[in-house]
Amino acid sequence: MSDSLPSARTLVSDLPLHIGQRVRLYGFAETIRDQKRMRFVVLRDPTGKVQITQSKDDSALTAALDALTPESAMIVTGTVVAAPAVKLGGLEVTLEAVEICGLADAQLPIARDSGLDKWIDHRQVSLRYPEQQLVFAVQTTLEEAMRAFWKQHGFREIHSPKLMGTFSESGSEVFAVKYFDTTAFLAQSPQFYKQMAIAGGMEKVFEVGPAFRAEPSFTSRHETEFTSIDMEIGWIEDHYELMDFEERLLAHAIGTVAEVHGPEIEALFGMTITPPTLPFPKVAFAEARKILVSLGHVPARRDDFDAEGERILSEHMAAETGHEFLFITDYPASSRAFYHMRRKERPDLTRGFDLLWRGLEITTGAQREHRHDRLVAQALERGLGLESLSDYLEFFRFGCPPHGGMGLGLGRILMRLLNVASIREVTLLSRTPKRLRP
User: What is the sign, positive or negative, of the torsion defined by CA atoms of 21, 24, 27, 33?
Assistant: First the structure.
């Protein structure tokens, strides 16, 4: 064996391939246990944990590790040794050299049971927990799977501006920001620009990016800044084409997550991930409302459902169909954006839908109105000023194909995948009406 120290990093997950060899490990000191003649350190990297064993006969190493505190960042070099009695993988690394790269304060600011707000206050520590590492591994796989599906079906990715000269949805839910000598608004969605791309002949587009909603909401499913997954498809016949595409997209993405992370999700979150069967159940809004009333829940609004109503309806339909997903279709026009296409035979209804997953709304979508004259009429019907919509309406003056699309909340999908209670558990840094830090 060479006396030179290894220069390349070895991951903890690869240690079984290196028994009897020298390795170089990077990670955090999770726990430190001192005995009279020995010291044991559990080192953690993104792939796992290993026990580092140090003999106190080596005075230099002893002096170096006397300063070590839990969660310090360190580089260790040592030899991998088979140790069947060691619970962490049946092996250990006997220490030969150590570098403490980042010494942690002796008193950590949080513990595992500190609560979600404390976790967010000290995100650089809570992110190290294995469950949190898995959240963002799952997020990465989910997005990769969706991108692969979009590519397979001929989509192009866009990046729309987040500073707008006018608002894209409701003017009551926008953040206004100073923009030189005028006022700009943070985009609530890429809706207008997705439609511009369709009018520009791109036919199929998607975007994954930030969206901003100035809603004074403190529920477990709302954030003022969130990641929106958006897509738009040209030359569609109706909104059922959109629902068909979304359920195939989700089945592919969830199946990929199950394949890559299934055992780890089950171990850390207690969830068994299985791809959903197709097609998803669908029920028209009017029928869904009748079902809710028959179950003793009368929605406060006649044109929309509250969160409790969505939960009750989902539970009822799951019992009837055995399915976790539920499309609600044909919403009243009064509860939908002015640009949703109306049903020809029932102009009071839209070609729009929501998708619920175990009672949580994860998608809103619709066929859009692509005819300039009808868009103008529907905007005026809502009392919207045409001047403020002039750029948007201009997109449709020079011919635009029938089209539609949807927006999905990334955080809400992760909530349901991992069965967590709050969107803040699956968000890197939460933004709410009372949280702008860190």
Answer: positive
